[in-house]
Amino acid sequence: MPVVNKAMTETNSRDLFPGALEMMILESLRREPAHGYTLVQHIQQRSNSLLQVEEGSLYPALQRLLKAKLVKAEWELSSTNRRVRTYQITAAGLRRLEQQISSFERMFEGISLVLNPGRATTS
Q: How distant, in Å, are the alpha carbons of 88, 120, 122 from that of 29?
């Protein structure tokens, strides 16, 4: 599972909501094709190191995305002459990502309204 901030203790770490990791993978791949290590690094960097994705979560998520035809993969040689599997988002993956982002934004707005009841909505 993705881990929230290394500095947090085991008992304080939290799992992301279902589908969050897949959404972050798709968003990362929307920018450019990447292999697993690059995806881990991208998510960590973009989250200011608040999120760390473990291999035990990343690769099963990538397999689910492959099975659903939301990403495709091919084997290539890395700059260090190692075989790596490079993943690329598909057209179906782009459509799913847009749906997930829209759904997440609505959910986040609802949570924000509960946590900040005095906040006025702009929609």
A: 6, 35, 31
CA-wise closest residue to 58 among 2, 121, 101, 118: 2
Q: Is 120 domain-assigned?
A: no
Tell me if 121 is assigned to some domain.
Answer: no
Q: What are the angstrom distances between the C-alpha of 95 and each of 3, 21, 70, 92, 107?
A: 27, 16, 9, 5, 19
Number of H helices, E strands in the chain: 4, 5
Strand partners, 90: none
pTM comes to: 0.78
Query: What percent of the chain lies above the pLDDT cut of 70?
Result: 84
The b/e string for 81-98 (b: 16+ C-beta within 10 A; e otherwise) is: eeebebbebbeebeebbe
Query: Which pLDDT score, from 0 to 100, does residue 52 have?
Result: 87
Which residue's structure tokens are 């920018």? 31
Domain with residue 85: its CATH number is 1.10.10.10
Element (H, E) at 74: strand 71-77
